[in-house]
Amino acid sequence: MTAELIPEAPTYATESEHLVGRRLVEQLPDGSVVFAGLRFTGTYDHEVDFLCLIPDSGIVVVEVKGGSVHCTHGQWYVGAGESRREFDIEQGLRNKYAVRDYLECDERWQGHSRLRIEHVLVTPYTDWPDDFHTPGLERWQVLGRREMGRLGERLRGLCTAARGGRVPTAADVALVRTILRGAHHPVEDVEADAAEREGRADRLTKEQALLLDITRFVPRTEVRGCAGSGKTILALTQAKQLARGHGGLEPQRVALVCYSIGLAEYFRRELNKVGRRHRPAFIGTFAALGRSWGAPDGSREDSDFWEHRLPEQMLDLAGGLAREERFDAVIVDEGQDFADSWWRPLLAALRDEETGRLHVYSDEQQRVFQRFGRPPVTLVPLVLDHNLRNTKQIAETFLPLAGARMELRGEDGPRVECVPVRTEDAIAAADDQVDRLLDEGWDPAHVMLLTTGKRHDVQVERQQAYGQQGYWRTFWDGDDVFYGHVLGCKGLERRAVILCLNEDGTRDRAKERLYVGLSRATDRLVVVGDPAVIRAMGGDEVARRLGL
Fold it and tell me: How far does CA 254 lie from the centroid of its chain?
């Protein structure tokens, strides 16, 4: 015979409770349920040492007192000598009524008749004479040391002999068990913890925005910051402030420009929440800015178009812009992705090329493209050295790649996991990890699988089906796992990321791609790849921090 114990591994306050709990589980019949340390809160707080639900017998409230238990002049004591302390013998009776009232007030019990319920005192180290009795406690309600070997039998016997109440069936026991587990208990929720961490990160990022107030009269700045330092949020905040006028500044005509289509979509969505008159005049990629002026689009594989022909055409087109089409301020996020030839058209689009505002946000360690570019004007450098957006566990994995000192101000979170596999098996293993995170309780809309080599088949299919713009809208609109590549996801994040290293690690700028990939998760990160590839891309220190 074995009863079910709830919880499975209780924390007992005393050795006496541990002993009684073990005997109850061992001796009560199959189908019985034993609750340990059950608390009820109402007019008074009650804690029941054990509550036994015994089918075809009854419900028993068990109060346990260890050591020496005795009664002197009507007052009950536990312990001897200086350790002796009083206790209230009526506690078991009050607990019995608390259990009964809680059960009968539950809507799920409505229509059921009252069950048989008793209370007993169990003293595993104290014996009681057969003729013991005292007001409020009869001999049959006290079970001592000699009765521990047949504790289950005695509980069943006293229920059978008791009067009042209906003997519970197995179905009654199942219903009472459900009610006593609580109504709609919250379950373990990884998303709840992530949401709390996100709220704190948002608050810290807003505090960091004070930097913009300090520098609002500095027309040309470069904000350099590590991954997770809040650069993108600051760029967005600055675009809002300049467009509507802030801190003594007149409203500006602003262009908010970036490289990534996905990041541009994020900016548009956030700024659509702002009144139309207070939005930037342009929000989008460098290429989209050119198209707005009449420049053609080009093939993604035609590097000469992007490096030379497009910026040259845009420079000519910028020269022909009317004053009302020009900008007072240009804000560039992920500026490390901009080629040398891209900066001239941006400066030429300013109403005043000499004094017009240019604000650049960059992280040189995320320079994942071969091109190298710097604005041909002097910018006042500002440094963000706090990581706010990632958990400490995630930030510590990419800290050796950050290239600068970084203070970790994120919250603690789940440990980062590394799944060692052969490169040719990395995609399949990453797919398995997606299923695992969903089983953990992560919302699919908060999960992303990123590759560093060849694009995942799902990404290819979605890009072909929806086009580039439609594909990136699924990052925000979709309710499914997002499949992407590290080259397109700078500035973007999701709570849970599976980083799939499906390459050999020998390509140029492999370290930068690894840095970007490791920093896209805010809360839960799983790295899938060959340990040799991880070392080739990130070095021994990153491998060590990933547990290799």
Answer: 35
CATH code of the domain covering residue 426: 3.40.50.300
528 in the same domain as 427: yes
Structural domain boundaries, residue 476: 407-546
| Highest mean pLDDT: which range of 181-190, 191-200, 252-261, 503-512 | 252-261
SS (HEC) of 10-70: CCCCCHHHHHHHHHHHHHCCCCCEEEEEEEEECCCEEEEEEEEEECCCEEEEEEECCCCEE
Pairing outcome for strands 85-87 and 282-285: unpaired
Boundary (domain end) residue, out of 388, 419, 445: 388
| Cα–Cα distance for residue pair 514/235, rounded to 1 Å | 24
Residue 166 contacts residue 117 (beta carbons within 8 Å):
no
Strand order in the sheet with 4-6: 4-6, 33-41, 45-54, 58-64, 117-122, 142-143
Q: Angle, to 10 degrees, between the axis of helix 91-105 and the axis of helix 170-180?
A: 100
Helix, strand, coil percentages for the chain (3-state, nearest 5): 45, 20, 35
Q: Tens digits of per-residue pLDDT, 270-309?
A: 888 888 888 899 999 999 999 999 999 887 778 888 888 9
- Is the four-CA dihedral 151, 156, 162, 165 of positive or negative sign? positive
Asked if residues 232 and 333 have their Cβ atoms less than 8 Å apart, the reply is yes
**pLDDT score, position 185:** 44
> Is 313 within the bounds of a domain?
yes
At residue 162, does pLDDT exceed 90? no
pTM: 0.63
Q: Rg for the chain (alpha carbons), in Å?
A: 34
Are 504 and 523 within 8 A, CB to CB? no
Q: State which of 331, 357, 388 marks the end of a domain.
A: 388
Q: How many domains does the chain have?
A: 3
